[in-house]
């Protein structure tokens, strides 16, 4: 796939990148965030991309030894890198990764992290619905499963515990997200797996396969059929196009959890 740039709406711009090295992907996200922090015009960029090899990304403040099996990753040439955003460890493999970067304070409530997550979650939810995948928005204290000392020798990975407004399908997380905020702009990016290699994820992140199978679901499993990268990206583009309109204040939606 060639690098593509297009317009989703009068206020949202789309970027679609081919698979790139993890360090390049994170550098591009961070550079876009820094550019919009300095920009005088309100802009929202939606970037869809992939990874050239299986890669572990850690939250900005996470220690490598607490998020991955360093020996296994080294032995199997799995890069480990730090994201510019927070959150826990993620294994990026067969997936579509999205990034939303914006300084549009009219569309996004910059003073409310949960509400910003909600607006983006609604766009993701709309895109997945086009594939026949029904999802709900999570909020704490909902937990599909709680890791224990017998489940994991390391800190629980990102997909184990959904954060507020992340998407669940059949009680399992289908999209993991993390955010970084500056004074005038924010970056939110997340992982949407096409398929999940549970043995690989378990080994790379140092947690049990059983825990992962209870808490993580792929787009293909949720849809009940193989979903290609191109189809998922096209569906997400349609979802973002619907929500990235000039209207403001998207309506509230039901949340799972009390």
The tally of strands reads 12
Count of folded domains: 1
- What is the overall silhouette? globular
**Sheet bearing the most strands, described?**
9 strands, mixed
In the CATH scheme, the class would be Alpha Beta
**How far do the termini sit from each other?**
42 Å
- CATH topology descriptor: BirA Bifunctional Protein, domain 2
The proportion of strand residues reads 25-35%
Radius of gyration: 17 Å
> Would you list the SSEs in sequence order as H and E?
EEHEEHHEEEHEEEEHHHHE
Which class do the helix and strand fractions yield? alpha+beta
CATH superfamily: Bira Bifunctional Protein, Domain 2
Strand order of the largest sheet: 1-2-3-7-11-10-9-8-12
CATH architecture label name:
2-Layer Sandwich
Percentage of residues assigned to helices: 25-40%
């Amino acid at each position: 796939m060639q690098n593509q740039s297009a317009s989703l709406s009068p206020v949202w711009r789309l970027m679609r990148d081919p698979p790139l090295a993890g360090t390049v992907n994170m550098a591009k996200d961070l550079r876009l965030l820094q550019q919009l922090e300095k920009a005088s015009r309100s802009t929202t960029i939606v970037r869809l991309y992939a990874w050239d090899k299986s890669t572990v990304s850690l939250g900005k403040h996470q220690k490598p030894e607490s998020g991955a099996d360093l020996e296994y990753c080294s032995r199997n040439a799995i890069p480990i890198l730090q994201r510019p955003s927070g959150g826990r460890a993620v294994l990026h493999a067969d997936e579509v990764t999205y990034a939303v970067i914006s300084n549009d304070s009219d569309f996004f409530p910059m003073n409310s992290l949960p509400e910003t997550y909600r607006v983006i979650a609604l766009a993701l939810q709309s895109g997945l619905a086009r594939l026949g995948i029904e999802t709900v928005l999570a909020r704490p204290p909902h937990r599909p499963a709680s890791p224990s000392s017998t489940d994991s020798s390391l800190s629980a990975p990102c997909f184990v515990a959904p954060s507020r407004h992340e998407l669940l399908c059949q009680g399992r997380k289908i999209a993991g997200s993390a955010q970084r905020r500056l004074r005038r702009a924010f970056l939110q990016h997340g992982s949407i797996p096409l398929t999940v290699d549970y043995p690989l994820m378990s080994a790379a992140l140092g947690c049990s396969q059983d825990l992962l199978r209870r808490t993580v679901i792929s787009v293909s499993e949720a849809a009940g059929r193989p979903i290609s990268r191109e189809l998922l990206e096209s569906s997400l583009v349609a979802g973002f196009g619907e929500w990235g309109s000039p209207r403001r204040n998207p309506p509230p939606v039901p949340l799972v959890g009390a």
